[in-house]
Write a structure and sequence with these properties.
Blueprint (H helix, E strand, L loop, with lengths): L3 E4 L6 H15 L4 E2 L1 H4 L6 H11 L2 E6 L21 H11 L3 E7 L24 E3 L4 H15 L7 H4 L13 E3 L10 H7 L1 E3 L2
Amino acid sequence: MPRIFLSFRKSDSRWMRDRVYRSLSDRLGADAIFKSGQSIPPGADFAEILRRQAAGCELMCVLIGPGWLEARDENGMRLLDRAHDWVRLEIATALREGNRVVPVLLGDATMLPDASALPAEIKELARLQFLRVPETHLPHALDHLGDALTALLPGTAAAPAAESGQGGAPAADPDPSTTMTAHVSGGGSAYQAARDLTIRQA
């Protein structure tokens, strides 16, 4: 069974979503990643497979782009507000089973949704620490995502950074960073900006 389930909205940030899938597949193997378009064979019961994979995955990555929260159907109803919305059902299933769920924000400006904007069964998503894949420096961002997710999967090879400093003094950080608190206007929150904004020192 695939270890990582990619939950996403088809209309949201497709090119970045595909880059994330290819990067993780190259790193962990395509069999380790569940992505509905690639992982469900023709003629299979997709509803049953989606439920089973969401319930059994070790880790669910919820890929959130700028259109994820407010995507709507032809009648103007927000997709997340529909009881049968597959994104909502996937996340609710993984949370209910106690699986690790990681929001992955696609793009430089996408914000983690507030709990008040989410259906009750997935409000917990708003409290989970996220990872970000910015469009700027995308190859480095994808490597960082792979490192972070690999570290969360038991039995996978440790990232090189985790192996450094063994048998001696800890290796110095060649690229120290300082996290700064930011005051945000026009959406988001100061708390989220504080945990997402990093200034690299020269």
